[in-house]
Automatic annotation (TrEMBL):
Gene3D superfamilies associated with the record: CDGSH iron-sulfur domain, mitoNEET-type
MF-aspect GO terms: 2 iron, 2 sulfur cluster binding; metal ion binding
Purpose: Regulator of autophagy that contributes to antagonize becn1-mediated cellular autophagy at the endoplasmic reticulum. Participates in the interaction of bcl2 with becn1 and is required for bcl2-mediated depression of endoplasmic reticulum Ca(2+) stores during autophagy.
Keywords assigned: 2Fe-2S, Autophagy, Endoplasmic reticulum, Iron, Iron-sulfur, Membrane, Metal-binding, Mitochondrion, Mitochondrion outer membrane, Transmembrane, Transmembrane helix
Keyword Isomerase included in the entry's annotation: no
Protein name: Iron-binding zinc finger CDGSH type domain-containing protein
Manganese keyword on record: no
Cofactor(s) the protein requires to work: [2Fe-2S] cluster
All residue ranges annotated as the Iron-binding zinc finger CDGSH type domain in the record: 61-99
InterPro entries: CISD1/2 (IPR045131), FeS-contain_CDGSH-typ (IPR018967), MitoNEET_CISD (IPR042216)
Length: 114
C-alpha cells in the first residue's frame, strides 16, 4: 500500500487521497441537502395541517367575542371552520365529517329552560 492510499481493514476497500478529497465534500453536501429538503417538506406538511382553511385568512388571528346578554335563548357556533356563516354553524360539518371520517360538531349555548 502506498502512502497516499487509505484502506478499510478486512474489507479490501481502498481509497486514494484524491478520491477522499472528492468524496468527503460530496458526502457533506449530500447530507446538508438532505437535511434542507427534509426541513422544507416538514414545514409544508405543517401548513397542510391547518384547521382554518377559509375563514378570514387575511387576519393573523380569528377571534370572536359575544356578550352573554346578546346571545338570546340559543346560539350555535361552528367548531369545524367550514361554515360559510362563521362563527355560526351552518351544517357544513356534516359534509366535512362524511368526506373525512371526522366527528366534529358545533358548540351549542342555550339557556337551561330553552
Ligand atoms: S358548520 Fe362548523 S360545526 Fe357546524
Amino acid at each position: 500500500m502506498s502512502a497516499a492510499t487509505y484502506a478499510v481493514p478486512s474489507s479490501g476497500f481502498r481509497l486514494s487521497k484524491e478520491h477522499l478529497a472528492v468524496a468527503v465534500p460530496v458526502a457533506v453536501i449530500a447530507a446538508a441537502g438532505g437535511f434542507l429538503v427534509s426541513h422544507y417538506l416538514n414545514r409544508r406538511s405543517c401548513k397542510k395541517g391547518q384547521v382554518n382553511t377559509c375563514v378570514h385568512k387575511d387576519s393573523p388571528k380569528v377571534v370572536h367575542s359575544f356578550d352573554m346578554e346578546d346571545i338570546g335563548t340559543k346560539a350555535v357556533y361552528c367548531r369545524c371552520w367550514k361554515s360559510k356563516k362563521f362563527p355560526y354553524c351552518d351544517g357544513a360539518h356534516t359534509k366535512h365529517n362524511e368526506e373525512t371520517g371526522d366527528n366534529v360538531g358545533p358548540l351549542i349555548i342555550k339557556k337551561k329552560d330553552a
